[in-house]
Design brief:
The complex is a heterodimer of chains A (114) and B (109). By secondary structure, chain A is an all-beta fold. Helices cover 0% and strands 53% of the residues of chain A. In chain A, strands 2, 4, 5, 6, 9, 10 and 11 form a seven-stranded mixed β-sheet that branches. The termini of chain A are far apart. Chain B is mainly beta and 109 residues long. Helices cover 0% and strands 46% of the residues of chain B. Chain B is globular, with a radius of gyration of 13 Å. At the A-B interface, strand 4, strand 5, strand 9 and strand 10 of A face strand 4 of B.
Chain lengths: 114, 109
């Protein structure tokens, strides 16, 4: 089974802090994604990556950046955390060479910014 | 933009089949139908996907109508652990997954 691991389940940070959310997958997937989930808004795509050192903006990239230095690891960075970034953050991965490959998700990091 | 319509909530008796409907009348020829579920405080779990033929795996069956404008996810013998929010998504894969608000399924003892 695919395992996508997010380093923290719960995180509390202060406004203005730089925040790193880490995600690791163990199935050699090329594609990795970061979503946030908010009540009534569903999941929204922040950034994604199809390969090492590659990144693409999703639907809501403002206030975020990402890093993909190794194939198995995809980091989401909040440069200066704000209260409107309080949310559930979900990492996912999928296989690039298999068309229509489904996403496999981690269990999420619930971030609170105070 | 979510391109599917699902009922907001459903109940099912434990041990009975749960049939979750989804309308996707604007689906295009190169889009698959995917189903995920999300148990409270966990990430979405992939269940099944299909193009036009019915599909079955160890978790569920997916029935897609011939015109592909709607589908039904069937959990053959619902248990309490199947209580979750179920998402129906149409997608070409890659970054094209749009999760709406899904159907909240409650399995009743």
């Amino acid at each position: 089974d695919v395992k996508v691991t997010q380093s923290s389940r719960y995180l509390v940070k202060r406004t203005g802090e730089k925040v790193f959310l880490e995600c690791v997958q163990d199935m050699d997937h090329e594609n990795m994604f970061w979503y946030r989930q908010d009540p009534g808004l569903g999941l929204r795509l922040i950034y994604f990556s199809y390969d090492v050192k590659m990144k693409e903006k999703g639907d809501i990239p403002e206030g975020y950046s990402v890093s993909r230095e190794k194939k198995e690891r995809f980091s989401l960075i909040l440069e200066s955390a704000s209260t409107n970034q309080t949310s559930m953050y979900l990492c996912a991965s999928s296989i690039k060479i298999v068309l229509y490959s489904p996403l496999h998700f981690g269990n999420g990091t619930r971030l609170t910014v105070t | 933009d979510a391109k599917t319509t699902q009922p907001p909530s459903m109940d099912c008796a434990e041990g009975r089949a749960a049939n979750l409907p989804c309308n996707h009348s604007t689906i295009s020829g190169n889009e698959y139908v995917y189903w995920y579920r999300q148990i409270h405080s966990q990430g979405p779990q992939y269940i099944i996907h299909g193009l036009k033929n019915n599909e079955t795996n160890e978790m569920a069956s997916l029935i897609i109508t011939e015109d592909r404008k709607s589908s039904t996810l069937i959990l053959p013998h619902a248990t309490l652990r199947d209580t979750a929010v179920y998402y129906c998504i149409v997608s070409r894969g890659g970054n094209q997954f749009y999760f709406g608000t899904g159907t909240s399924l409650t399995v009743i003892p």
